[in-house]
Amino acid sequence: MKHLLLSIFSILWFLCMGSAQNPDKKCWYIDYYQWNENTPALHILCGNDDAFNTGDELTLEMWVRAYTFGENRKVMGKIDSDGSGFNNGYVMGFQNLNVYTEIWNPTTQVITYGSAGPIQIDSAFVHMATTYSTNSGMMRDYINGVKVGETQIFPANPIEANNAEFMIGAAPWDPFAFQFYGALDEVRVWNVERSQEQLQKYMFQELQGDEEGLVAYYNFNTAYDNVVPDMSQNNNTGILQNASDLSWSWAPSHAPVGDLKMYDLHDRVAAWSGKLGEEFNYAMSNSGLSVIADIQRKEFEKYVLFAHDGENGTSTQNEPDGNHQGFQRTHREWYLNQSGNPELSVFLNLGDAAGEGTPLPQTEEKDHYALLFRENKDMDFIAIAFPNQIYQDNLIFNNLILQDGYYTLGYSESSFELVTDITNAIFQQVMIYPNPANAYFTIANAPGSFMHLYNLSGQMVMRKNISQPMEKVNTKHLPSGIYIIKLQHNNHQQNQRIVIQN
Asked: Domain limits at 268?
């Protein structure tokens, strides 16, 4: 079954070229162009609790979308130094398209690279992690859950403790050095060495905050003003420095991280443009469900991820309205989160979806099957799509835009009645002013939207998350001319011309 599905993916590639994202899902965003006007020292100080001195073991994790990954930028760390010498603590960032981490025990230890790494220079969100253990003596770096480098630490001593504050956003020994700009999310500090399996399992998942070994957890979802709560049990609240500067915001996050409904589910997989290699628009699993998503390189506002509840066989519960003779569905449900409403081709395999149980009946009648959806577990399903193709026990649904919620496959001896309009998200009344604009324009009434700005040659010159009811957009760096503003929110788009006079 699984090998057959892989073949079908290849055969149907040329045939196949959701609701709003959780509004509370935020990241720390620094706009490079606005930051570059005044170059403020933007960093978050999180205190010097001794828990940050992790000693024998360490894991650092983050989701990051950099302005460019080719630069040398420090993103988090804890070092007591004036910059003239180093003998304690740790720092993590990126350089030359790689994770770049240093620890001191007290000897400086650096992972060295002979050439640029696997990260795209101007990419979407990327998951980075570093682990260290005195037991193994190894420091290991991971990108998107895959180990990309390691070095033997000798002697394998504990990381030397210090009294400095844990810092996010710049070099911990100098808040003006190696300033980070871009988008940052899901910053995690552990006093244990997380395995590759653990990294892969939870990189797509918000944490509960009580996980063993979790020292600090900054997901920015509840951040406000200059306050950055620590969502772990240690309560090491961060305070953003120089918060009056206009170049930063708590912006909607497009990191492929599922909400807490996904926490106890299985086999999390995702498609997003920051994925390594050329499979950023695939999310393939052995659980019965796989997708091809219409996500192109640098479309960082788009992703789709899903996981399943581990059930086997079939069920007759939560039947859609209507007369569906002999109704059955897969007992297994998949919970899906998405952003940017990518168009999907959905592949369902009857055998794999059944797990160790009995699969749904096999037939060539397309309208005897339907993709079923419900927003919450206490609801009955609705039927939203018939398969476009059936090949043996593989069903293919093309050109779908899905919203967050639960999905399963239904079967009936009679046809299903489809409900095609499952999302009703529309723009509020959007205003863009002044027009013509000189240096700045304001977008009003479009929070949660995403803006692309194009010149008349069709070249995209700016991207921006719209996070505020009154969002100010800096255009000082752009030449005078006519531009097209494209706003996207859920399934809806709005275009407007604007004249910039600089």
From this structure: 258-411
